[in-house]
Amino acid sequence: MFVFNPVEGGAILHYKLSDPSINKVRVQYTDEFGSPVYKIGDYSVDTLLLDGFNSAQSDVPVKISFLDRNGKQSEDKILKFNTLPSNLYTFFDNVQVTPYWEGFQVTYELQGLANGSATVSFIGENPNTHAVDTLTLENFQLESGKFTKAYTLDASQQQSSYTIVITTEDNKQRIAKKVVWKGITGIEREILPNKDFELLDPFNKSNEKAYTTTTRYNPGALGKQYLFDGDTKGTRSAERYASGWATPPYTFLAGPNALHTAENNVYFVLDLKRPAMLGEMRFYAKYPDGYATNQDFGSSASSYLVLLPCAIKVYAWTDANDYNPQANQATIPASNWKLMGTYAQDPNAKLTDRWYCNKAKQQVVTVKTITDLNALAPLYVSVPFTFDTNEYRYYKIEFETTYRDLYSPVNINNNNNMVSCHEIEVYAKKE
């Protein structure tokens, strides 16, 4: 009538109520923490989970009785069951704490029944008391499967090596187990000079237009080369501000149909000219100015903003041979590319959440003078990379979506699937 199957953190009681006069089964036992546990099962199910254990247990006594339809209880029958270690214990069997960019990462894998949570902390300086303290980074629910949690620490907390503390907690937030790792060294990164970089354009989507003064509203100054000129804000443009004229942007503009979709497998490839171990890629925007509208971007002063990407994927070329932009791209195996990083935000995100919004002023800032521009911080979106100790030379960039105008999306749109960014920077392992 009763069968016990050990599971992670307890046991499953299988029962069968074959007597029609019996309405329910009642169990009573004491969990690992010394607390009494009562559970009742009826005809709607045929199992009960006897939980409340972290370490493996043997011969746990349990009282089982029956309740008839009037609630009258039978005499207790005493049986015993065994348990398996809970995931709060087995979590530490496979967990790995390894170096990451300016920090560390935690990789774990769980199988079977998973519940409870884990807390990741490190020993650092309490920002309020300035004393050495255990600082919590994250508390997360445990799930079955394999997961990686990566932590890049704030500059004020970066250390030559880290002491990491991980605890697991049950659903009542009682600590089940605690383990400490010492001497975890973070990987420093630095900007990789980009003057020799090249953006390969296998689908010929880049608008290549020389600077011209023959027209007020189409000044040209568009091309891939401007992505690597060191200008992250539009300083070169600001030197040519002129009333009544569209300012030459000295920027990158691609399209039409430069956005990657399932039906339009278009992309660009960044050639670093030498292999490097990257940790981050940044895409910058130029600050809009208050002069005449550049009609290469659209008919409105806001048209440039709807050409900025809000969804980007970056892949590394893993094949032993060099990437060839002249090859038939459709014949390149997908396995030659390894996904390294993604950025994704809702195209309709509120303005203050968009990466081109000036965070200090909480608005889109339009500049009129180079002095105004010099006082502002650059605008960029960061694509962090998964930690990979391999070095790669070629990186595929897929621009998937651009922002929608919040106020007049019908009139100010990106129906031609254009995309723009002003500068690309990469951050690599510090030599």
What CATH architecture of the largest domain would you give? Answer: Sandwich
Q: DSSP strand (E) fraction?
A: 35-45%
Mean pLDDT: 94
CATH class descriptor of the largest domain: Mainly Beta
Look up the CATH topology of the largest domain: Jelly Rolls
The chain-level structural class is mainly beta
What spatial form do the alpha-carbon principal axes imply?
A: elongated
In words, what does this structure look like?
By secondary structure, this protein is mainly β. It has 3 domains: 2-81, Immunoglobulins (Immunoglobulin-like, Sandwich), CATH 2.60.40; 87-187, Immunoglobulin-like, CATH 2.60.40.1940; 191-429, Sandwich (Jelly Rolls), CATH 2.60.120.260. The chain contains 3 helices and 25 strands. It has helices at 87-94, 235-238, 370-374; strands at residues 2-7, 10-15, 22-30, 36-42, 47-51, 60-68, 77-81, 96-100, 103-110, 117-125, 132-141, 145-152, 162-169, 175-184, 189-191, 198-200, 252-254, 268-276, 278-285, 309-317, 337-344, 379-384, 392-402, 419-421, 423-429. The strands form 7 sheets. Strands 16-18-23-20-21 form a 5-stranded antiparallel sheet, with no helix packed on it. The radius of gyration is 30 Å and the shape is elongated. The protein starts with a strand and ends with a strand.
What's the arrangement of secondary structure elements?
Layout: E1 2-7, E2 10-15, E3 22-30, E4 36-42, E5 47-51, E6 60-68, E7 77-81, H1 87-94, E8 96-100, E9 103-110, E10 117-125, E11 132-141, E12 145-152, E13 162-169, E14 175-184, E15 189-191, E16 198-200, H2 235-238, E17 252-254, E18 268-276, E19 278-285, E20 309-317, E21 337-344, H3 370-374, E22 379-384, E23 392-402, E24 419-421, E25 423-429
Antiparallel strand pairs: 1-2, 2-5, 3-4, 3-6, 6-7, 8-9, 9-12, 10-11, 10-13, 13-14, 15-25, 16-18, 17-24, 18-23, 19-22, 19-25, 20-21, 20-23
